[in-house]
Write a structure and sequence with these properties.
The complex is a heterotrimer of chains A (258), B (293) and C (403). Chain A is of the alpha/beta class and 258 residues long. Chain A has helices at residues 47-54, 77-83, 100-107, 116-121, 124-141, 160-173, 190-205, 217-221, 241-246, 248-257, and strands spanning 7-18, 21-32, 36-40, 62-67, 70-71, 85-87, 178-182, 209-214, 226-231, 234-239. Chain A has two domains: 1-84 and 176-258, Rossmann fold (3-Layer(aba) Sandwich), CATH 3.40.50; 95-173, no CATH class. By secondary structure, chain B is mainly alpha-helical. Helix content of chain B is 70%, strand content 4%. In chain B, strand 2 and strand 3 (127-130) form a beta hairpin. The longest helix of chain B has 28 residues, at 49-76. With 403 residues, chain C is mainly α. Chain C has two domains: 1-99; 100-383, ABC transporter involved in vitamin B12 uptake, BtuC, CATH 1.10.3470. Chain C has 16 helices and six strands. Chain C has helices at residues 3-27, 37-62, 65-75, 77-98, 101-126, 135-152, 158-178, 186-206, 208-211, 243-266, 269-279, 281-285, 291-317, 327-340, 345-361, 369-383; strands spanning 217-218, 224-225, 228-229, 234-236, 239-241, 319-320. In chain C, the strands form three sheets. In chain C, strands 1-6 form a two-stranded antiparallel sheet. In chain C, a hairpin with a 2-residue loop joins strand 4 and strand 5. In chain C, helix 4 (77-98) runs antiparallel to helix 5 and helix 5 crosses helix 14. The longest helix of chain C is centred in the C-terminal third of the chain and has 27 residues, at 291-317. Chain C starts with a helix and ends in a 20-residue tail after the last helix. The chains are: A alpha/beta (258), B mainly alpha (293), C mainly alpha (403). Chains B and C meet through helix 4, helix 9 and helix 11 of B and helix 8, helix 14 and helix 16 of C.
Chain lengths: 258, 293, 403
Amino acid sequence: MSAPAEPVLSLRDVTKHFGGVRAVNRMSLDVPSGAITGIIGPNGSGKTTLFNLISGIYEPQAGEIVFRGRPIHGEPPHRVSMLGVARTFQNIRLFNEMLVIENLLVGMHAQLLSGLWAAGLRTRRFIAEEQSALQSAIELLEFFPELAGTHDTVVKNLSYANRRRVEILRALAARPALLLLDEPAAGMNTTEAAKLLRDIRRIRDRGVTVLLIEHNMSVISGVADHVVAMDQGEKVVEGSFDEVSRHPKVLASYLGSD
Amino acid sequence: MYALVALGYTLVYGIIELINFAHGEIVTFGAFVGLAVLAALAGTPLSAAATALPAAFLVSMAVTALLGVTLERFAYRPLRGADRLMALISALGASIFLMNAMMLAIGRDSKPFPAYLSEPVLQRGDLVVRQLDLFLIGLTILLCALLDLFVRRTRIGRAMRSVAQDQEAARMCGVSVNATVSITFVLGSAMGAAAGILNGLYYGVIRFDMGFLLGIKAFTAAVLGGIGNLRGAVVGGFVLGISESLIPAILAAPPFSVPEIFDYKDAVAFGILILVLMVKPSGILGEEVPEKA
Amino acid sequence: MNGPRAATWLLWAGPAFVLAWVLGFLLTPEVRGLAEPQDFAGLAGLAALAAIAWCAWRALDRRGLLTVFDEARHRAPAQFGLSVLLCAAVFPLILAQLGKYYWIHVGALSLIYVILAVGLNLVVGFAGLLVIGFAAFYGIGAYAAAIVTTEVGDLPHMIWLLIPAAAVLSAAFGVLLGVPTLRLRGDYLAIVTLGFGEITRIVFTNWDTLTRGPRGISGVGSFQIGGWNLMHPLDVGPLRLDGDTQYYYLILAAALLGVFLAHRLNHSRIGRAWVAMREDELAARSFGIDVARCKILAFAIGAAYAGVAGVFFGSLQGFVDPTSFSFLESVLILSMVVLGGMGSLSGSVVAAVLLVILPEKLQMLRDYRMLIFGLLMILLMIVRPQGLIPSRRRMLELGSRPG
């Protein structure tokens, strides 16, 4: 394997069928720590299903998923999230009626501990905790200069690109070790997308391992350290971008569709 | 009879994924229209069962269908695509509105329903089978079969199923979603009207709020059969009807011997509902649907 | 605009205006029909009041004062709280001077509905769980109070213990209902809770040995402190406070506490989790929110509110019977939540008071009450789904202002 370091996440023979459809079939994968791994593949090749399996929304019928040495398949999503996996969704799923800052605070949900009584009595610890959460949320917001001054805007009033950005920040707010990005550049124009990819590299530089889905080859070329190509629920090839993009099967599926 | 009411629920739910809380009131309305027709025909040469009943059914089904469409147009259509919670509250509002409108128009008392087809065809000890019972079962099966055929075989039926699958896609293919939903309400309400009249004939009285209980029970039947599934609704209706009369009878007899259970007869239906929803929300004939992620 | 000062002024003027309006409302003659001159006077009075309320609202809205008011309210919550408290406290005293004792009773009742509406709003408005049989929890609280104080004997201070006990009991039933319905979709949940409400009512009606069936239970115990029974008149200097007035204050304290706690919850991790769950359950689950726990918590807390309200109701009326906890009662509470605005606590408070006092005046429309509620629900959902006072998500302020 070309993985430079101990993998953060390992998949072994993970399989998920829907009725007769094999969405993901005997998929094995190592996600190297501290790098950006890109998953490419045509629509319907099982990329998003793979994300849903990793984040616990689906339970695989076979195989195992190990995150930082700990099996996580079969754990409910909120448990997986608490262990350090955060994600975005292909079609943005923010809490639309809530403020930008509140979305980030929800992202921190797992790190906050105050329960019912603390909130009702407003204990000193509760105030301190809320205050520091608010502070880190505000700091986090500075990650994207485009979001300056939006903290008390209701999310649904933001532009599309900014909603994508908030969604990424919400995931970062959870302080994940592994960040799953499902087509983060979808719906953005070329300039915006290029900018976003630079931002994703900045995320990696903060020490977060990134696993990125993209079906557009050109988008992924500049950003991924490691690329995995999928088709029909199976891994076709993995390696550096150049290696993968020259693979005949990958060429075939992309020349066919583009 | 539960089967017929359940059909109305299942039909509407299957297409627009909304529990039509007001369906019970639609049934009641149908019963009152039927009663009005029968009362108008009384004393005329047309008062015989052979003429009066078909007239009552046809008129009531037509008028009630109109009510159903109006209801959809005003209370549901503006909320299509809005939050589910809002549509549900609107449906609940419609139910309360109709129930109270009928109470104000007709009064709080039960109204007697004229007796038809009450001659026994079979009598063996305690067991009496009236013409009416056969008529009820026959008509139920007939209407269910017709509806099933309609949805499966006709162009409109196909349109209905396509809207149920994906409204956007159906619209792209030239299906008018509004018209299709309206037709759904026509069919559902007409079935409800028939059920309302049968209910009146069977129990001999009708009341403004009878739809409330009937509605919930029929909904139970629809869920029992797997909501959105027409044949399931029929099966669910029969299962519920039988278990509702059997369960208290069993519990009242030894070895349980709790005669008080009859006071809780209606609670039994709710209990079944809750149990079914808890254990198998997809119903006895339903299939698992993968969660959309 | 000289912002802060104008705003502080508004904090006091607002509640005072509402108080004056409510008093004006109460003094308007009743509209019993359309025959007596009194009816027309009443109708004219009500129309004038409606016009005043509407004009005031528009004026506030147009001049941007509403936002200023809102800002001020959040900048100086203590002042606003004090102002509301003062107005609410003066209310029965003025009524007593005017000899309108009945309205003090109505005032106390409307405060019970405030507790109910706020509790239901936590479940429906925040957590997004449509619960229709809410009156069941209310009834459980009321019957608990009635049964314990009549059967066990009315020990002097026991009813105080019944408040937490009823809260816990109702919450337990809430959990009992919540656990099996966790996986249900919104519309199924609505039907199941409706069924639960009906079963509860049927049990109240038929469990003769415990609930005395449809005859109900009378002689529910009243609140006491030492030898002082809150139902007996009390002289404070020149003022004579009758039982209803004392109950009014008692329930006012409870209602304020309820609103206050709900407000705090709303601006905490739990409130955020509820709203997040309502907005997108799947996304919420992906961010460490244990949706199951959140839902059960919402059920339990909402039910506890209703249970407490039930104890006050039973003790205030001195009598409970199944009709007080019917389907229509649930609908009434739900109407309050919907009218006030889902997720809006102040909306629930205002709507609860309005929906209790309006029908008292419009006796003529009594029979049409439910009809109007039904229509109201449809129209509100279509025209103004956010309700009278839309909830505004805003920054939580804990001392320093961010960025």
